[in-house]
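Box 4.2: Ligand-aware structure prediction
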Amino acid sequence: MAISSESAAGTMQEKSLAGTGSWMFSGPLIMIFCLAALVPFVTNDYWVLIATRAAIYWVLVGALNLVIGFAGQLAIGYVALLTLGAYTTSVLVAGNVSPPVPVFGALAIAGVAGAIFGVIVGLPALRLRTFYFAISTLGFATIITQIALAWQSVTGGGIGLPGPEMPAPFHTHAGFYFLCLTAAGLITWMTANIAHSRFGRGLIAVRDADVAAEATGIRKARLLMTIFVFTGASAAIAGGLFAALQTYITPDAFTFDLSVLFFISVLIGGRGSILGPLLGTVILTLLPEFAAPLAAWSTFLYAVLLLVIVLVAPGGIAALLDFGNRRVLRANRTIVPKAALVGHLLATDKAKSGIALRGVVLSFLGVRAIDGVDLDVEAGKIHGLIGPNGSGKTTILNVISGFYGPEAGSIALGGEALKPGDSESRASQGIARTFQTPRIVGEASVLQNVMIGGTIRGQSTFVESLFCLPRHRGDERTLRSEAMTALSAVGLESLADIRADRLQHSELRFMEIARACMARPAFILLDEPAAGLSADEILRLGQFLKAISRQGTGVLLVEHHADLIFDICDYVTVLNLGRVLAQGTPAEIRVHKEVISAYLGG
Ligand code: ADP
Ligand code: MG
């Protein structure tokens, strides 16, 4: 049995690897760059210049795509970083503040300055809501321009200063173009590597399912800051190249229009895609050229284009090109989990002895949602938590998973107190969970959603992932194959490549369970996993949860289906108005007088 199920999982993995292998993603990108490399040979210097500009913009937009398209942060003022890079490079090469620095040295210094400034621009994102963050990035753009204007002795003020002159062989139009194209290719490759790493998946999780991201151990602040460093450095280097292209820079060169162009390139490209924003950048750079008489109307054109995209294709170019997800899915799908595969998912040697709540109290607006609850969840056992709506079940899960700190009482795991309110640490401490309303990344594939659950088990650092080094490749291989096993175990393997928002509600519940298993948890907290499932599916869910507990993993099961609870639980706690009404084995609870009158409706 074990052998056959293992080989079944193996076949699934191979199938998925073929379906979502990196070549599928990089094919069109490689083609675009091959075509771009032909530009100097088939056109004149004018078009080489335009193509150079597109390549430089992409160095900035490609990185900014991680901030806007992946992390969902509305950074609209990124012209600030372009300006910073352009001035830093030009000033250093001109020798206005130090002995003249060679161009590539100046570009590197600009990159460092951009990384630092990128973090400063990004910091408000950790505190401000999206819209206010957008405005704050605009504020930075204004500040940089004002400094460039005011600091005349260094920047030349309104008169400006010459851009850096490139050394041979980059001093010709074609030479400089190939330099910029190489930088653009490098950015594409690096962002694609990040997109297909735990960091990229972390970003989309933060964007679309921040609560689930926390519960899987994704550290939002650290992740966003890392991305801001990378984006700031790339944008400033783009600025240095931009200054070289312009040959002479003044503050006027860095208009708000440019910021809008960067932002809209990502939006019309589509969130969470690399090909889309690349095409978006190329289209927006070329648009004024083809509509030369309308050049003065470029902002207007952008606005119209944006409106058309939002109204006609809200997913942007990427969604238009996403042919795979047009395939019609079979209706009336039923889920058949394979409990036999659970052994491959969860480790058996769990040292954690149990979760213990003592006298936990939590109020909302003076109303006690939980009022002195004691609860013990043991390893390898299924503990049912039942009670009427509003009795505090979800709140207890939220306290255990660190979303709320209790006012009184304690929570311990294996005898050690759990830090209240520290939700991002729970996954690494061995506690995973699902949600009453599934928290998913709708635009990502089912497989990616499940891989998000394995974030904490990744080994590679951001830099290793950026350059696709061996540890990154190892991480991806392991996570992908384990996620396929998890999907096979919950019976969703045939939907691995489908966008998660196309799944039925019941399938999302199983997808969340697969995601929770990816962290190899010692305890799984499930919030009404049977809601919306058919009677058959509930039976199979019960078998599956039993298989999980047999592996040594403790299960805390919040449920309304009394049959499921009494069928599979080792122990049951009944809540009423935030207090424990009864605790005991299913047999004891079933005949408990108060429970029958208050809840079971006997
Ligand atoms: P259950 O999951 O058992 O249906 P909950 O734990 O969701 O119940 O809610 C328990 C009580 O706490 C309810 O009265 C609910 O209105 C209240 N509550 C839960 N979360 C919040 C919150 N974030 N803000 C205010 N009240 C809340
Ligand atoms: Mg609830």
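In the box above, the bound molecule is magnesium ion. Residues 220-246 form the longest helix (27 residues).
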